[in-house]
Design goal:
The complex is a heterodimer of chains A (95) and B (484).
Chain A lengths: L4 H10 L9 H15 L34 H5 L5 E2 L2 E2 L7
Antiparallel strand pairs in A: 1-2
Helix pairs in contact in A: 1-2
Chain B lengths: L5 H9 L5 H19 L2 E4 L1 H16 L10 E5 L26 H8 L3 E6 L33 H8 L5 E6 L5 H7 L2 E4 L19 E6 L2 H11 L29 E5 L9 H16 L3 E5 L7 H16 L18 H12 L2 H14 L5 H21 L5 E5 L15 H6 L2 H9 L3 E9 L2 E9 L4 H14 L12
Parallel strand pairs in B: 2-3, 7-8, 7-9
Antiparallel strand pairs in B: 1-3, 4-6, 5-6, 5-10, 9-11, 10-11
Classes of the chains: A mainly alpha (95), B alpha/beta (484).
């Protein structure tokens, strides 16, 4: 299926990606080609086939509900772009 | 020293022929001399490598050395290394100094292996040519005009050029096997869940699996013995005793049942690659293997299925890169949405943005059933093909890649053409099976890889079959011209 300019802008917004106007036709062309490739899936009847969740049919392990991690906030925040008083700083969200 | 295998280096260290410090210094010197041509390393950790080497020598002096203590290796820059930049080949993580070690790194450190540095890779492991790296393309040591394959292209090129005796890699759709094939070395992606994904930056979590790249199967087994093992910190780690991957190296090939999928030898396969692969199969026949034709009827569906599942999972995994807690942040964000969008728009390269957008689309409201659910159903059919095949054969063999290494730039304008070249490797990830590649010849001066696919947890048998071939042939001992 061919994607249009407005589709690309909507997908980029959902993905929180800034893309330039000039690049939109290229994205539209490439994404449409990829979706055309993916479309080959629809030729196969999969009714009644169980979707594969894990190749070895593994399930999530359970563990004791105990404390396993220690507080390493200061260590992890050393690589943050902006922090203050142990909090991550972002532009003001609420006026 | 640089032409020795891991087992030879291990014997040399044990016998006192050289120290780890000398060995490490030797490889660092080769990196300094040759990597300007190849660009296979993003970061060289010379100082810490020499410190690790001296620690390994001290450990040996105290009689506490293991088989690989003091041997240098290179880590793909996807594994988090405490205090060392872990870029994943992306501008997004160019400033990311990992605050902890991945489990694989812990295992390697525990064994006394010496990290020479972090190898170049396609950005976030998305690519088959190593051209999508923020740090520039890697060159193939066999021909500097050619790509090394990807995404573990830096690891493969560095091993082939003897800049390191071995390296780690990760494989989501062929990213260990295809660069191993294109660089003329040996690499194995084990069964999904064998090697911990903790601290291995996620691309597509249901497909990603770490593994070794080395010059032969015996070395891959030695390194996999260190890398693998149950890890409670990875929710998909398989809870079973770690096997001895070297256990079956000495087993003769006689009686081994090899299946050749007819779908892997059809249209699209370069005749020169087909010829090298057929000659390798003939060698297996001479060694006493039984070869039968099999069918994997859903082969053609693997690439379309993969290009739903991998982008969908990547769009989810990469949402953590938002400019807030780590990584690239845009200058002067106007508001929170602007911070997210510009940080991500600037931090990610084109291929990563394409895949995030495909995945976002496939997962967006109203499309889930048609794309992701459908792909997960097809994944079952693809896995069932292999299951049926392994009732008749012990291993499956075929080409790793339909062509030899292509020229840098030759496919960069057509993502779909690049994707289709992964047709033989992708199905293995979708099924969660182990797969490996070993060198079996050349076409136009560029290496050809044979892929061996095994049943779940049957790596030792695959490595044994590869080792027996390597005892009978010398393709794995060829050295690219200029790197002797």
């Amino acid at each position: 299926m061919a994607l249009e300019r407005k589709d690309i802008k909507n997908i980029a917004h959902l993905a929180r990606l800034a893309i330039s106007e000039a690049d939109i036709p290229e994205y539209a062309r490439n994404l449409s080609n990829i979706l055309a490739l993916v479309e080959q899936m629809q030729a196969v009847d999969t009714s009644g086939v169980t979707p594969m969740a894990h190749p070895l049919d593994a399930v999530q392990r359970l563990r004791e509900d105990g404390v396993t991690e220690t507080d390493q906030r200061d260590h992890f925040q050393q690589i943050a772009p902006a922090v203050e008083d142990g909090l991550y700083l972002v532009p003001k969200v609420i006026e | 020293m640089h032409n020795k295998t891991l087992s030879e280096l291990s014997a040399g260290l044990a016998g006192g022929d050289f120290s780890s410090e000398e060995l490490t210094g030797g490889f660092l010197a080769r990196i300094g001399k040759f990597d300007g041509q190849l660009n296979s390393f993003i970061t060289v950790t010379a100082e810490s490598a020499l410190a690790q080497a001296r620690a390994a020598d001290a450990r040996r002096a105290q009689g506490q050395a293991g088989a690989l203590t003091g041997i240098p290796l290179a880590q793909k820059d996807i594994f988090c290394t405490d205090g060392v930049r872990t870029s994943c080949g992306s501008k997004m993580l160019d400033n990311f100094i990992a605050p902890y070690d991945a489990t694989v790194i812990e295992h390697c450190n525990g064994a006394g292996l010496v990290m020479l540095g972090k190898t170049n890779m396609d950005e976030f492991a998305m690519g088959s040519s190593n051209e999508t790296s923020f740090y520039g393309a890697v060159k193939n040591p066999w021909d500097l005009k050619a790509v090394p394959g990807g995404s573990s292209g830096g690891s493969a090129a560095a091993v082939a050029a003897r800049l390191t005796p071995a390296a780690t890699g990760t494989d989501t759709g062929g990213s260990i096997r295809q660069p191993a094939a294109l660089c003329g070395i040996t690499g194995i992606k084990p069964t999904y869940g064998s090697v911990s994904r903790y601290g291995m930056i996620a691309f597509a979590s249901s497909l990603d699996q770490g593994g070794p790249l080395a010059r032969n199967a015996e070395d891959c087994a030695l390194l996999l013995n260190v890398m693998a093992g149950f890890d409670p910190r990875d929710s998909t780690s398989v809870e079973r005793a770690t096997p001895d991957y070297s256990a079956a190296l000495g087993n003769p090939v006689k009686g081994l049942r090899i299946g050749l999928p007819k779908e892997y030898f059809g249209a699209g396969l370069d005749p020169a690659v087909a010829q090298a692969v057929e000659e390798a199969i003939a060698e297996y026949r001479r060694l006493g293997a039984e070869v039968v034709e099999i069918s994997l009827p859903n082969t053609a569906l693997a690439v379309p299925t993969y290009y739903v599942i991998a982008p969908a999972e990547c769009s989810s995994n990469l949402s953590r890169m938002d400019g807030v807690r780590f990584g690239h942040r845009c200058a002067e964000p106007q508001n929170l949405e602007d911070l997210y969008k510009r940080s991500r728009g600037e931090g990610f390269g084109e291929e990563v943005k394409r895949r995030i957008m495909v995945g976002t689309y496939a997962l967006s409201a109203g499309y889930y059933d048609a794309y992701y659910l459908k792909a997960q159903q097809l994944r079952h059919l693809i896995a069932d093909d292999f299951k049926a095949a392994f009732e008749k054969v012990d291993v499956i063999m075929g080409p790793t890649s339909p062509s030899v290494a292509f020229d840098i730039g030759a496919r960069s304008d057509d993502p779909v053409a690049m994707y289709l070249a992964d047709v033989y490797t992708i199905a293995v990830n979708l099924a969660g099976l182990p797969g490996m590649s070993l060198p079996v010849g050349f076409a136009d001066g560029r290496p050809v890889g044979l892929q061996i696919i095994g049943n779940y947890f049957d790596e030792a048998r695959m490595l044994g079959a590869a080792h027996q071939y390597q005892l009978a042939t010398d393709w794995h001992q060829r050295i690219p011209h200029g790197f002797e």
